[in-house]
Amino acid sequence: KMSDKMSDKDRFRMETILKYLESNESITSSTAAELIGEEIKTANRLLVKAVKLDILISKGKNKARVYLVKE
Questions:
Q1: Rg (CA), the chain
Q2: pLDDT of residue 2
Q3: CA-based diameter of the chain, in Å?
Q4: Residue 61 and which of 19, 27, 31, 67 are 20 to 30 A apart at CA?
């Protein structure tokens, strides 16, 4: 259910994150940044976009925030 509202590059990055989430309950923006080889702010922007597109949900505040696959 990857949205048309993501660029091909973002879609590829999101697939990498979703693959990680198949074997991990949640992901942080710093872990996502390492996975996709980008800065934390880039990973964070992608994770926030995924929440807006109903792909992920976020839990926690600020630095303690984690992202989970929406059931």
A1: 11
A2: 53
A3: 30
A4: 19
Q: Distance of CA 10 to CAs 5, 62, 64, Å? A: 9, 22, 23
Contact 12, 35 (CB under 8 A): no
Q: Which residues, in sequence order, are CB contacts of 30 under 8 Å at separation 6+?
A: 40, 43
Distance, in Å, from the CA atom of 16 to the CA atom of 50, rounded to the nearest integer, reads 13
Nearest to 43 by CA among 54, 60, 56: 56
State both tokens at 5.
Answer: 């509202």
**Residue whose entry in the numeric block shows the structure tokens 């259910």:** 1
Cα distance between residue 65 and residue 26, in whole Å: 10
Q: What tens digit of pLDDT does each residue of 57-69 get?
A: 999 998 889 999 9
